[in-house]
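Proteins fold reproducibly. Take a sample protein:
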Amino acid sequence: MELQIKQHNGFKYVDEGQGEVLLLLHGLFGALSNWQGVVEEFARTHRVVIPMLPVYDMPLTRAGISGLVEFVEDFTKAMGLMQAATVLGNSLGGHVALVYTLRNPGRVQRLVLTGSSGLFEDGMGGSFPRRGDYQYVQERVAYTFYDPKVATKELVDEVFNVTNSNAKCLRIITIARSAQRHNLTKDLGKIQAPTLLIWGLNDTITPPVVAHEFNRLLPRAELHFLDHCGHAPMMERPQAFNRLLRKFLAPGPVTQPA
């Protein structure tokens, strides 16, 4: 299934299926295609919506967590997504999802975080990509995954093209620094939405200790680890990710894992 990118009121997005809304937010170096496995599985039973976050071209004065949250708020209003949705976020997208939930608690029915920032993250292995160094970018992209083969040439080429633009790199650095400053430790206890944490046991960017801390601080969280999996479980272990998500979305009370 090839994702069809639509445009409306200046927004680019994927919008597939009908039913309860799943709002998916990608990470800093992410793309709409990162959620391909979720779209293919859940568009049969849900309306799956993925906005393309403007991480590479938003005004520098707004480049940061707050600006991205405002973008998501504007997007949901423009799309008429006024009913409470299940919001999923990976990496930076998880951070945006958390702040969006804090600002709009009535608009979030459930929350799903995977490799989320907001407490601690080791972005790009502790450094930012070097302009024009393809091998370096290839190594850093592979660092995201347990299995380096997931870092396909297409994915590496996409990140390489981004890092070759001074304007895009400046925004990436600005947003990444904003995320590092915007620590949510003191705020997570306010989130009452049932929260599913799906974490790669081999995540080197937001390690398992980060997942445990999210689980401790979020009042209604349940935590699941996937072995042989890095920072993007929905890409690296899509079937296992979807099984956990399907169970979480099933009608009935959310229970703590044994």
In short: DSSP finds nine helices and eight strands in the chain. The radius of gyration is 17 Å. Confidence is low (pLDDT under 50) at residues 254-258.
